[in-house]
């Protein structure tokens, strides 16, 4: 289980995502290559019970409730799209694609406090990660290859313990292993603003390399604040 993101209703119910039921976070690349096991769940702190609302999500990521709490959005990172699960109305209990074919991999979802959802796109300039959703056979091959490599290194390390073998075992399947590929990517950060009908209305880009790999953007007091687990700084841009 990889608890990822959450949002809370006015009455205290917690809607949250589980990115994978088969891997740990340090096997992030393997999650992208493997089957879709991500989930959307709701937890009621009063009854102390949880319920699975959606499963089969390929790396379930950011989650955000609509302003009237009639539905909740979920970022399906590996497929470059955002899903919507209805909580109220005639469609209650049903899910659908909210926005598809995003120009990057969606991470966290926030709201601008007015009428737009803010969706941050990780690696928008990556040719490698953006091509993966369209190549299922390649994903399967790479997943099996990395799993075989992990098992081989693990076995050798059990016989001849070594810091470097342990490090290699950790790196295989970890997000760090794709870092060398970034030299071929465009140094770009992208965030899209989407209205409540699922239409992209604004697209913000940074192409000078000063800000990259934005995973979350929050609007506050006339500024956008941009964060990322891959960077050692918090960026700020005036709205």
From TrEMBL:
GO cellular component, one term: endomembrane system
PANTHER family, per database record: ADIPOCYTE PLASMA MEMBRANE-ASSOCIATED PROTEIN HEMOMUCIN-RELATED (PTHR10426:SF88), STRICTOSIDINE SYNTHASE-RELATED (PTHR10426)
Residue span, Strictosidine synthase conserved region domain: 4-89
Record keywords, A-Z: Glycoprotein, Phosphoprotein
Homology family: Belongs to the strictosidine synthase family.
Keyword Phosphoprotein: yes
Record SUPFAM superfamilies: Calcium-dependent phosphotriesterase
Protein name: Adipocyte plasma membrane-associated protein
Molecular function via GO: hydrolase activity
Protein species of origin: Lygus hesperus (Western plant bug)
Keyword flag Phosphoprotein: yes
């Amino acid at each position: 289980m990889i608890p990822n993101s959450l949002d809370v209703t006015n009455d205290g119910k917690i809607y949250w995502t589980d990115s994978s039921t088969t891997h740990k976070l340090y096997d992030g690349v393997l999650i992208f290559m493997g089957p879709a096991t991500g989930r959307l769940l709701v937890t009621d702190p009063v009854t102390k019970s949880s319920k699975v609302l959606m499963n089969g999500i390929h790396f379930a990521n950011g989650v955000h409730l609509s302003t009237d709490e009639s539905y909740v959005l979920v970022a399906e990172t590996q497929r470059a799209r955002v899903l919507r699960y209805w909580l109220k109305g005639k469609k209650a209990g049903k899910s659908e694609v909210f926005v598809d074919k995003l120009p990057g991999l969606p991470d966290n979802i926030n709201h601008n406090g007015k009428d737009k959802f803010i969706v941050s796109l990780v690696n928008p300039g990556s040719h490698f990660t953006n091509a993966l959703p369209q190549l299922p056979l390649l994903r399967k091959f790479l997943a099996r290859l990395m799993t075989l490599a992990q098992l081989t290194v693990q076995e050798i390390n059990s016989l001849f313990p070594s810091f470097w073998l342990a490090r290699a075992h950790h790196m295989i399947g970890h997000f760090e292993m794709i870092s060398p590929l970034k030299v071929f990517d465009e140094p770009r950060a992208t965030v899209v603003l989407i209205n409540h009908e699922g239409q992209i209305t604004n697209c913000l880009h940074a192409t000078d390399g000063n800000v990259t790999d934005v995973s979350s953007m929050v609007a506050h007091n006339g500024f956008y604040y941009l964060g990322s687990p891959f960077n050692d700084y918090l960026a700020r841009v005036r709205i």
